[in-house]
Design a protein that fits this description.
By secondary structure, the chain is an alpha+beta fold. The protein is built from 13 helices and 18 strands.
Length: 481
């Protein structure tokens, strides 16, 4: 059953820390790096491989959560004739990581950054990921600089990527960006985010792609206690994501043209899954006429409304099965597209947090420069899909377990109490088992009854279990009153 993403504000209290430490121990996740890795990070942080091209005159800006310091991307948007120019700088991790060196070996072991409440277990040492390699404001940084020219409809006309020295001028967060755009106080490079983002969203709908605005759970610390809340994404979240998608699509096209690369692929959802989604829409009282496409329906939903939020959460089931697909020497794979993007797509915009992105950047840089892909990239290529799959599974488990632990810790003294909620999922095999989303606190938990649960309906439930221990086991359980 699908779960929500989770963000945490503040530091966890002692019982919660103990449960999270137990989870880390079971998963074998260490926050510390071996001495040789830290030594290499220190050396390369002081003397990275700097690019010949200087683009520090371009006033880039970043958009991230307020507390983020591992900043992978910076952008600058401008008008170009009747169209637009998107400059997207991606942190150049290869300027710091020597192939087959200690940093490289450790990154292959970790694969992705892992997010625990109040703590990150980074892919690279913080000295790099939150320091010398991060696109922090007012700092010169090596980057893979994408320049993508768009026509007046937002379609790609030309693509370039080169290594360049860049300097971000501002670190912005989504709420501030939304506020500036809504009030008309944003300067043109930021104001164009809405204009370009909406054009790209329109193209996404036209090609049958989808972007899900699924609310997040957020844990907020106030006066040494914790509260749970739901946060629906701002429109600016979606516009920002469109710039990343645009770049990932450009990377995929470059690699396909060269006949070598690694794509992020997702097969089309089977008819049975779509049929189930239609039944879910009916149960949730969401009107889905047969002439309305899935993408158009998703665009019409409001994540602030409980019925719509529940349906958007169900839509994530169609995104299962995504993987990494390698191809080389012109032999293209049978599946080259990501069905949610509805186009070829590659992960390339988060190299500080995801291993595969560094390799995609190197391939694209080689294609544009007309040179061979580096040997160290080709040697690692075939093993990347399995390594990324393992890392993605581990990250998914960390996310699920952390949500369970935090919810259980916050409710551990309230067993026996009753709550109002909405049934947001029901098991097809066991119609008396499902998921309930409480109105307050903002908890999503397993509910088990004796009769079929009313999908999409309000339900009064009683908390029967709230145990933050036992990693892997269900921690929060409810029963219908």
């Amino acid at each position: 059953m699908p779960r929500r993403h989770i963000r945490v504000t503040g530091a966890p209290e002692a019982p919660l820390r103990a449960a999270l430490t137990a989870l880390r121990t079971e998963l074998g996740v260490s926050g510390s790096f071996p001495p040789e890795v830290l030594a290499e990070a220190d050396r390369t942080a002081k003397a990275p491989v700097l690019p010949p091209h200087d683009a520090t005159d371009i006033p880039f800006f970043t958009i991230d959560p307020p507390t983020s310091t591992d900043l992978d991307q910076a952008m600058h948007l401008s008008r170009q004739g009747t169209g637009y120019r998107v400059r997207y700088a991606i942190a150049d991790v290869a300027a710091f990581v020597v192939p087959s060196g200690a940093l490289d070996r450790e990154a292959h072991r970790r694969v992705t950054t892992l997010y625990f409440p109040g703590e990150r277990i980074p892919l690279h040492p913080e000295l790099l990921s939150e320091g010398a390699a991060s696109l922090l404001p007012d700092q010169d940084r090596p980057a893979a600089l994408w320049t993508i020219d768009l026509d007046d409809d937002g379609r790609t006309r030309a693509v370039d990527i080169r290594r360049a020295l860049v300097r971000s001028r501002a670190k912005l967060d989504y709420a501030a960006v939304q506020r500036q755009i809504d009030t008309g106080t944003a300067e043109e490079p930021l104001a164009l985010l809405k204009e370009i983002g909406e054009l790209r969203e329109g193209l996404e709908v036209a090609r049958g792609g989808i972007s899900l605005s699924v609310p997040e759970q957020e844990i907020i610390e106030r006066d040494h206690t914790y509260e749970l809340a739901y946060r629906a994404p701002h429109p600016a979240d979606g516009w920002n994501a469109q710039i990343s998608l645009l770049t990932g699509m450009a990377a995929a096209d470059l690699m396909l043209s060269a006949g070598t690369g690694i794509l992020r692929t997702l097969p089309a959802a089977p008819d049975g899954a779509v049929g189930r989604l239609r039944r879910t829409a009916q149960a949730l009282h969401i009107d889905w006429p047969h002439h309305v496409s899935y993408a158009s329906l998703v665009r019409s939903l409001d994540p602030h409304r409980p019925h719509h939020a529940a349906f958007l959460q169900e839509c994530t089931t169609l995104l299962r099965g995504a993987g990494y697909t390698v191809f080389r020497d012109g032999a293209l794979p049978p599946i080259t597209t990501h069905s949610a993007v509805a186009a070829p797509y590659a992960h390339c915009t988060a190299p500080l947090r995801r291993l595969a992105d560094r390799y995609v950047s190197e391939i694209c840089l080689a294609v544009i420069a007309g040179r061979s892909v580096p040997d160290w990239v080709m040697e690692a290529l075939d093993g990347l899909p399995a390594r990324m799959a393992e890392g993605t599974r581990r990250a998914g488990r960390v996310e699920r377990e952390c949500v369970d632990i935090v919810e259980a810790a916050l409710l551990k003294d309230r067993v026996g109490e009753e709550f109002d909620g909405w049934v947001v999922d029901v098991s097809e095999r066991q119609p008396a088992v499902g998921v309930v989303q409480l109105e307050s606190p903002a908890v999503i938990g397993r509910v088990e009854g004796t009769d079929g649960l009313p999908l999409g309906e309000r339900l009064r439930v009683r908390l029967t279990q709230s145990d933050p221990g036992n990693p892997g086991a269900a921690k929060v359980r409810f029963e219908p009153v």
